[in-house]
Amino acid sequence: MTTSRAAVAGLAGTLALTGLAPLVWGSTYAVTTSFLPPERPMFTAVMRVLPAGLLLLAMTRKLPHGQWISRAFALGALNIGVFTAFLFVAAYRLPGGVAAVLAASAPLFAVGFAALAGLEQLTLRKVVAAVIGLAGVALVVLKATAALDTWGILAGLGAAVAMGSGTVLTKRWGRPDGVSPLAMTGWQLATGGILLLPVAAIAEGMPPALDARNIGGYLYLGLIGTAIAYALWFRGIARTSVTSVTFLGLLSPVSATIIGWAALGQSLTPLQLLGIAIVLGGLLLGQTTSKERKIMQITVFGASGDAGSRVVTEALRRGHRVRAVARTADRLRELPPEVEVWTADATDPAAVEKAGAGSDVVVGATRPAVGREHELAEVAAALLEGLADSGTRLLVIGGAGSLIVPGTGLTLTEQPGFPAELLPISNGGIGQLEVFRATPHAVDWTYISPAAYFEPGERTGDFRLGTDELLTDEHGNSAISMEDMAIAVLDEIEHPRHHRTRITVGY
């Protein structure tokens, strides 16, 4: 049911789900004032994040190792520990909502950090959107009598810097193979809580006695306001752009204001309603457009072929840098001049390593000559070995022969009457997929099977994605154009959703 047009809807759905996190965080003030012991901000911070982190670690049974130990502490410090500590200092030293306004400057820092890290383009529209959102938050929470304090201001800005830089690092580092989003969330919450624990002990001494009301409040903040909310937040960072997610943080003071009006009987003035409208306008304006996606270096093996050349065209259409690789340079001369042209043997792991160096993504789109169908498995093995230590993502356009035909329980190749002349290439594709599924290499690969009929055609942007079953239309036809396959490939490159698995594309 997924289409290229539906990818836009899918992105909107991701942002909507991610936006639930700051909406829930907006309830923190109401819960804190109504259910938690007073004057214990650091203890509350620890109780909010450390038990939630330990719970997720117990559930996922996955601990960081190697370089991810230091990365987990760095992310836990920025996203949880430093951010929370600075925010509470600012909240206690800056009355009248000034702390919320300073925290709302996080999108400004995120926009700059993402540009410095090469993740996104810095645009005037994003900066203006961040300023608009900041102004809206000021109208929502700021009081005319607000007093200013130098240390409080510095702490508020420190919280914004921590959130912006933590979000960018979370996006840049991603997560290691075999580690679920919940486990990654647990790492950060646990390390952030560990870092906050001595701060709370030094600043506030022994923990207070808790009654049932306090415990209920902490359970809500820990389970819903932290474990679930942060899992949604980090999921959003992984699936969309840094600034798109960071702008969603503007929803938190809006949520706090509305909850205060609805649950605590606080006033909601016309000026605050105007501020809410301005915040939403800044949030929408700040979303990353297709023209502002990260510019990637994409290397395409088999770039002179029918499928590979269309991947090259689609990648260029979206503004990416492309390195086209083929065994001979003859047909590569037909590609646009901005394409970097290489000749290399895709069955040679050393050649793959050299040609793929510096790439964000490698696409395999090779198709062997008749009588050399065995090379599909050889190319698969070479791609995996050549990219094994690079951290480069690998997408391969494979074959349809291993797909299960609906209602039969048999693969396409096993169907009665399957053309004998297609058996060699079909079996070659089956062997190719087996190499990926059995690989010992920790490469982030995606194997993409086309529909049964895979030929040059029209670029419609309207298709479906599946897993191991052949996709057919209402008439039983199974087809996908090479142009739409290229769209599916680039959609997966720009919005990774399928890792170390096979997917299929069809109408």
Would you mind describing this structure in some detail?
The chain has 507 residues and is of the alpha/beta class. It is 56% helix and 9% strand. The chain contains 18 helices and ten strands. The strands form two sheets. The chain has an eight-stranded mixed sheet with strand order 3-2-1-4-5-6-10-8, with helices on both faces. The protein is elongated, with a radius of gyration of 26 Å.
Write the layout of secondary structure elements.
Blueprint: H1 4-25, H2 28-35, H3 41-60, H4 67-93, H5 98-103, H6 106-116, H7 124-141, H8 150-173, H9 181-204, H10 212-239, H11 242-248, H12 251-263, H13 270-285, E1 297-301, H14 306-317, E2 321-326, E3 340-343, H15 349-356, E4 361-364, H16 375-386, E5 393-397, H17 423-438, E6 445-449, E7 453-455, E8 464-466, E9 479-481, H18 482-494, E10 501-506
Parallel strand pairs: 1-2, 1-4, 2-3, 4-5, 5-6, 6-10, 7-9
Antiparallel strand pairs: 8-10
Helix pairs in contact: 1-10, 1-12, 2-10, 3-4, 3-9, 3-10, 4-8, 4-9, 6-7, 6-8, 6-11, 7-13, 9-10, 14-18, 15-16, 16-17
